[in-house]
Specification:
With 305 residues, the chain is mostly beta strands. It has five helices and 20 strands. The strands form four sheets. Strands 1, 4, 14, 15, 16, 17, 18, 19 and 20 form a nine-stranded antiparallel beta sheet that branches. It has a six-stranded antiparallel beta sheet with strand order 2-3-5-12-7-10, with no helix packed on it. It has a three-stranded antiparallel beta sheet with strand order 9-8-11, with no helix packed on it. It is globular, with a radius of gyration of 19 Å. The two termini are 25 Å apart. One of its GO terms (molecular function) is zinc ion binding. It comes from Candidatus Avichristensenella intestinipullorum. Its cofactor is Zn(2+).
Length: 305
């Protein structure tokens, strides 16, 4: 790699097989990912988690470039079947109950949805999972129908579950703490139900949290639209229609192309393809996105794009 390099295409790590019994092969069909098997649920596009670290094209782990772990993690998910009902703790609860680790807030962008595809997005007003008990949890769930392009913010405490027939983009705090509320009676590879975390899930679930999916609109002629600005990350959608300028940024960004095009800066041009993620370090100079495609851009909070 030369010193002129301003963005670094990444190779994902995968979670698959028994780790993701709900996964499928859509990441290969839609984005030509070299998935390890037909039950591949997650492509860890930009990850510095131990054992699930994405890599640079020369084979080095991403952390070799960044100098250590990153505070954010980006993945693509294929939910052929519904995922378990989950909830994540905030930083304070995780610090107190999970050995000082950080909590987890995340956001989703729906990339592909089968007709009528739904997901769990919070609890019904007035519901109380602890009082209702495990047997009645499903009656507490708030289902919403989604379509490609929808953006959903999942703060800590938001009960959620990705439904079947969905492929999505997920940006999150770089934490692997998940409390599983319910798994639809599904059995694991050993023929036993997967572990639930009922008490901790009840502790952190925010029953009154009610949000709705967002549907950003493309500006006339293209451009960059801010979809989310949260305490931990920002999320933008770039509508590249010929040329779109990405402003200088004081921190790193993840750039995920949803079509074929290129990024350019100071005479250096990097081709991009659909489903490909690039790590973009901080830069004082603008970057030009070239072509006819959309892209998703995530960055740590308060950095802008």
């Amino acid at each position: 790699m030369t010193t002129e390099r301003f963005a670094y295409p990444l190779l994902p790590a995968f979670r698959h097989g028994a780790q993701t019994p709900w996964g499928g092969d859509a990441l290969a069909r839609l984005f030509h990912k070299a998935i390890p098997d037909a039950r591949t649920g997650e492509a860890m596009e930009a990850s510095t988690l131990e054992g699930l670290e994405s890599r640079l094209e020369d084979g080095r782990p991403l952390s070799a470039l960044t100098g250590g772990p990153l505070p954010l993690l980006l993945k693509l998910l294929d939910a052929r079947e519904p995922l378990s009902v989950q909830v994540h703790p905030d930083d304070a609860y995780a610090a107190a109950h999970e050995g000082g680790r950080q909590g987890k807030a995340e956001a989703w962008v729906i990339l592909h949805a089968e007709p009528g595809a739904r997901l769990v997005y919070g609890l019904l007003p007035g519901s109380n999972p602890r009082a209702a008990g495990q047997a009645a949890l499903e009656r507490c769930l708030r289902w919403v129908t989604v379509q490609a392009g929808d953006v959903l913010y999942i703060p800590a405490g938001m009960v959620h579950a990705i439904g079947g027939g969905l492929v999505l983009y997920e940006i999150q705090q770089a934490s692997d703490i998940t409390y599983r509320f319910w798994d639809w009676g599904r059995l694991g590879a050993d023929g036993r139900p997967r572990e639930l975390h009922w008490e901790k899930a009840c502790d952190v679930a925010r029953a009154g949290l009610q949000l709705s999916p967002l549907r950003p609109r493309m500006p006339k002629g293209g451009g960059v639209v801010r979809c989310l600005e949260t305490p931990h990350f920002t999320l933008d959608r770039a509508y590249v229609r010929g040329e779109t300028v990405l402003a200088p940024c004081a921190d790193f960004r993840f750039f995920t192309a949803l079509g074929e095009g290129a990024l350019a800066q100071n005479g250096v041009r990097i081709p991009v393809r659909a489903g490909q993620t690039l790590y973009v370090p901080a830069t004082e100079r603008p970057i030009r996105a070239l072509g006819q495609f959309d892209a998703l851009i995530s960055a740590p909070a308060m950095t802008g794009t």
